[in-house]
Structures are given as structure tokens and as C-alpha cells.
């Protein structure tokens, strides 16, 4: 067995290893402490990245949901007025029913009124509506979801008395569909869309071979009768109707902030007048409606009003309210419809504080819409949420024949 001295002299391996020093306990503790600190920092950074990623993911989800829901809304705004009767026989106007539940029944034109394409309520309360939000009503033949409501045709005059509806290459009305018939003719004051009906009902049953009664067949060469599908069963009103509103249901997603609700498209059912509610967008805090009016009918919008005409910029409330009561004036004067939606953007973020006022609308429309100051934001418990304003602007295309 060699000694350390002989190892130095002879260089034997087993003895050289005796001269190599290892790590001390202090060194091990220091290294472990550094390692733990690095792990803690890395873990905290990972949690932060994961949290931010989750917020961004939820924000992206809400953006996608918003795009899909708002396109549905925009489509219906553009369809309002399509296939809508402009006038009835004043001597014997048709009798019909409309919405049977509140607050929808506050916007009925039934039982004999000519339907108005656009109506709205301002800052409603009660009846399940989210407090101080607007209510919008759209009327037109194509606003329902069944096949019949998406189809139309026309019948021209025939001197031999064999008038038949136009048959398209696809998407035709089906035998048995309930349709309304509008007489379109040119008069000294312009075109008219007058509802054609007999004494018993305002609708008839579609057939590719024509109609059993001459009431629904053009009698003069200058006439054309237009057929608009309403439903597959007997309708209660000569149009379809969709109401848009915000309410907070019992089953609202748990990530939605307090005092928010769901935007619904609600179809008035033709069989009983109740509402078929279709959720469009979650976590909606407010909806505001603004109308743009050409009150002197010169082709230029000079007045803007809130949903019910109580407040008007550029005109008088009395004129706007009288316009809103008349279907013909609405067709001639309503040029713009603006919808503003205040919507939650992502989930609650404890590291974020919303300390700026929120204006639901443009700066020059503050009197027509709504502004939430910091105190209101805190009162509604919205401080730790991000918000965005969705804006839809539509120039109605189906109100006139021009």
C-alpha cells in the first residue's frame, strides 16, 4: 500500500484520487439555493405567460363569437322591410294578431295597422330586459328561419287567364306554403305594395299552378302580384318579426361580469305569438339604438334620434315621434340605423383596472346613447374587465322600391 509521498513520487492512480477534494456542504447548500430561486422565477414566469395566454384565448373566442353574432344582426337589419305590405284596403282592413307577451306586445301594429319595418324602445326596465338597455323590432317576410320565409315569386298578368307563379331554377316555394300577395303597380305618386286578400284571410296557399280564386291573379296588364313566403302553417300576421334585446338569463356563462346579459334574437312565433329566443352574443352590458333621419326628404340625413325619438340632434322630437308612428314616413325618411353594443372582452383580470369612462357610441352622440363613468363602472363591478364597443351601421335597402 503506497503512501501519499510515494504517490507523488510514483504517480499511482489510486493514490492520486486521495488528493482530489469534493464539494463542501456549504457549496451544496448555495447551489441548491440558487437552483430553487431559478425554479421559482421560471414557475412565476410560466404562470404569468399561461394567464396571459388564457386571457388572449378568451378574448379571441369573444371576438369570433362577436363577428358571427353581429353578422346575423346586420343581415336582419338589411332584411327589415322586405316583402312588407305598404297599405291595406281602408274600407275593410285585414284583421291579424302579433306578439302576445310583454314587452314585445308594446310594439304591435295589430290588429289592423300597416306594419312598420323598424320600431324601438329606449332604456327599458322590467319584463326581464337588462336594465336601461334598448329594444329593437324588425319586421319583414324573410326574418324567420323556416324555408318558406326565405322564398318569393311573382305572377304577371295573362290575357288568357292562366297566370302562374314564376318558377326559379332552385329555392322555389313549396306547395302548401302560406304566402301573402302584394299588388305592385305604378300610380301617379309612385309604386304601391298593396296587400291582396279576400274577406276571410290575409294570406293564401301557394301552388305552382296558380290560385283557385281570381282575387290573387292580376286583372290588368300593368299589374304584377308578388308572393312572399311567410310560414308553412297558418300565420297570425302578414309578415315575420324579429326582436333584439339584452336580458340576463339564469343560465348565463359564469365568466360574464355582474350586470351583463345575453343579446337575443327573438322571433315572434306565427302559431301563438310567443317568442323563440335565440342567443346571439354573451356578456353584453348594453345595447343602444340610434336612427338617422331625412326629415325633409331631400336625400340628406340631417337629424339623429335615440331609440324612441325622445332626444334628437338636428331636429325636433315631435317630428321624429310622428314619423315613427307612420309606416310610410319611416320608409321615406329613415336612412341610417346604428347599433352600439358594449361587450365584455375576455375574462376577469385581477391585474387589470379599468379607470377610464366608457362611451357607448360616438362622441357627438352622447345625448342619444349612454356614458359609463368610473363611478358607474365600479358600481357595476366592471373594474377588472376589459370592454369593447361593437358598432353596426346599416342603410336600410328594403324600405322603398327606388
Q: What's the topology here?
A:
Layout: H1 4-10, H2 13-16, H3 25-79, E1 118-124, E2 133-140, E3 152-156, E4 178-187, E5 190-196, E6 204-205, E7 224-231, E8 240-247, E9 261-268, E10 275-293, E11 303-305, E12 312-313, H4 317-324, H5 327-333, E13 334-345, E14 358-360, E15 370-372, H6 374-379, E16 386-394
Antiparallel strand pairs: 1-2, 2-8, 3-7, 4-5, 4-6, 4-7, 8-9, 9-10, 10-11, 10-13, 11-12, 13-16, 14-15
Give an account of the 3D structure.
By secondary structure, this protein is an alpha+beta fold. The chain has 2 domains: 54-145 and 238-394, no CATH class; 148-231, no CATH class. 22% of the residues lie in helices and 28% in strands. The chain contains 6 helices and 16 strands. The strands form 3 sheets. Strands 1, 2, 8, 9, 10, 11, 12, 13 and 16 form a 9-stranded antiparallel β-sheet that branches. The longest helix is centred in the N-terminal third of the chain and has 55 residues, at 25-79. The protein is elongated.
Amino acid at each position: 500500500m503506497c503512501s501519499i509521498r510515494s504517490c507523488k513520487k510514483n504517480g499511482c492512480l489510486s493514490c492520486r484520487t486521495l488528493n482530489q477534494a469534493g464539494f463542501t456542504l456549504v457549496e451544496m447548500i448555495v447551489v441548491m439555493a440558487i437552483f430553487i430561486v431559478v425554479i421559482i422565477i421560471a414557475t412565476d414566469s410560466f404562470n404569468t405567460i399561461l394567464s396571459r395566454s388564457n386571457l388572449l384565448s378568451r378574448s379571441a373566442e369573444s371576438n369570433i363569437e362577436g363577428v358571427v353574432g353581429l353578422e346575423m344582426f346586420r343581415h336582419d337589419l338589411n332584411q327589415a322591410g322586405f316583402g312588407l305590405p305598404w297599405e291595406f284596403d281602408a274600407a275593410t282592413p285585414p284583421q291579424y294578431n302579433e306578439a302576445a307577451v310583454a314587452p314585445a306586445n308594446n310594439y304591435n301594429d295589430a290588429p289592423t295597422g300597416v306594419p312598420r319595418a323598424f320600431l324601438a324602445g329606449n332604456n327599458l326596465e322590467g319584463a326581464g330586459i337588462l336594465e336601461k338597455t334598448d329594444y329593437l323590432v324588425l319586421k319583414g317576410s324573410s326574418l324567420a328561419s323556416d324555408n318558406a320565409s326565405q322564398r318569393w315569386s311573382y305572377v304577371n298578368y295573362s290575357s288568357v287567364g292562366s297566370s302562374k307563379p314564376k318558377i326559379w331554377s332552385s329555392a322555389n316555394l313549396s306547395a302548401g306554403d302560406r304566402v301573402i300577395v302584394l299588388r305592385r303597380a305604378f300610380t301617379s305618386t309612385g309604386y304601391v305594395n298593396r296587400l291582396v286578400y279576400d274577406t276571410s284571410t290575409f294570406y293564401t296557399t301557394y301552388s305552382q299552378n296558380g290560385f283557385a280564386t281570381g282575387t290573387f291573379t292580376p286583372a290588368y296588364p300593368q299589374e304584377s302580384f308578388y308572393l312572399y313566403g311567410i310560414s308553412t302553417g297558418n300565420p297570425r300576421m302578414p309578415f315575420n318579426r324579429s326582436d333584439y334585446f339584452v336580458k340576463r338569463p339564469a343560465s348565463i356563462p359564469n365568466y360574464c361580469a355582474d350586470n351583463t346579459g345575453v343579446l337575443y334574437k327573438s322571433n315572434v312565433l306565427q302559431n301563438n305569438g310567443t317568442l323563440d329566443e335565440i342567443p346571439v352574443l354573451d356578456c353584453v352590458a348594453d345595447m343602444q339604438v340610434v336612427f338617422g333621419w331625412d326629415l325633409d326628404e331631400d336625400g340628406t340625413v340631417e337629424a339623429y334620434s335615440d331609440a324612441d325619438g325622445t332626444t334628437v340632434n338636428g331636429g325636433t322630437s315631435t317630428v321624429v315621434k310622428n314619423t315613427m308612428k307612420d309606416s310610410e314616413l319611416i320608409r321615406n325618411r329613415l336612412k341610417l340605423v346604428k347599433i352600439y353594443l358594449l361587450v365584455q372582452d375576455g375574462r376577469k383580470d385581477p391585474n387589470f383596472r379599468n379607470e377610464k369612462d366608457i362611451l357607448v357610441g360616438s362622441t357627438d352622440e352622447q345625448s342619444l346613447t349612454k356614458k359609463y363613468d368610473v363611478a358607474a363602472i365600479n358600481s357595476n363591478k366592471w373594474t377588472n374587465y376589459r370592454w369593447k364597443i361593437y358598432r353596426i351601421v346599416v342603410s336600410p335597402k328594403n324600405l322603398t322600391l327606388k
